[in-house]
Specification:
It contains 7 helices and 10 strands. It has 259 residues and is an alpha+beta fold. This is VTC domain-containing protein.
């Protein structure tokens, strides 16, 4: 299967109880298929400036916002492949760009080496490097991990449903090889369902949402982690925006999304 490096879609989130999740998942299996990875753990290491400028801007709900993270599917080893990802949201549409790199190359970069590149994705390489040029001292700030189940729909490859459980974080020992342990971000949300689609939902799925009384929820893993667990000690939420940030933010929005 060819590695997908660019994504364009809408992402909608729903909060489920354990009981609802069990019933909903059972009915969903009549229409969608659990992917080959089954229940797997995802680790995302979010980068930000020392004053958390990127996440604070995102929480203001602007027309354009962006994040950068390093993502690993499972706890990596030196020989593992991980992903450098930028995630942008413009007028409700999510654009994700990523390149695969070896964990060894990532470590060398973090120790002062060259920015890792993917030889067959020059445009994405340039976009990621440009992002780092626009923000002062982007570095790992928090690790967020969760256990995911992902379902695909054979009749529409753009329609996917994921369920994230035990969403947890840690702000120390920001080394992906140290494991996925951490404190729960929101204990009151046992399961977060994300629906990824570009068009309308299949009728049967809309009927399932109605049957179980599920409604759209605002839930950003990084933003909620920052607001609940980091803001008071690292950078208050109500910090006034630096004037020069506005200029950077607007220029970012002009960056080409696709080559």
């Amino acid at each position: 299967m060819k590695l997908k490096r660019a994504f364009e879609r809408k992402e909608t989130k729903y909060q489920l109880t354990e009981a609802t999740f069990a019933k909903f998942k059972q009915e969903l299996a009549s229409y969608m298929t659990l992917d080959e990875f089954g229940l797997h753990t995802i680790l995302s290491l979010y980068f930000d400036t020392p004053d958390y400028r990127m996440i604070q801007a995102s929480m203001e709900k602007p027309r354009y916002k962006e994040k950068f993270r390093v993502r690993s599917y499972g706890v990596p080893k030196a020989s593992s492949t991980i992903f450098l990802e930028s995630k942008k949201k413009i007028n409700g549409i999510v654009y994700k760009r990523r390149i695969p790199v070896s964990y060894t190359d990532y470590e060398l970069w973090q120790q002062g080496g060259a920015f890792p590149e993917s030889p067959d994705a020059p445009q994405i390489n340039r976009e990621l490097q440009w992002l780092f040029a626009q923000y002062d001292r982007l570095a790992p700030r928090v690790l967020i991990a969760y256990d995911r189940m992902s379902y695909f729909y054979e009749e529409d490859s753009d329609f996917r449903v994921t369920f994230d459980q035990r969403i947890r974080y840690r702000a120390e020992e920001l080394d992906l090889t140290r494991g996925s342990q951490g404190s729960l971000v929101a204990p009151e949300v046992p399961v977060l369902m994300e629906v990824k689609a570009m068009g309308s939902y299949p009728l049967w799925f809309a009927q399932l949402l109605t049957k179980y009384g599920l409604h759209k929820a605002s839930f950003s893993k990084y933003a909620l982690t920052y607001r609940r667990h980091l803001a008071e000690t690292v950078a208050p939420v109500d910090r006034l925006r630096q004037p020069e940030y506005t200029k950077v933010h607007l220029v970012s929005a002009a960056l080409p999304i696709f080559s």
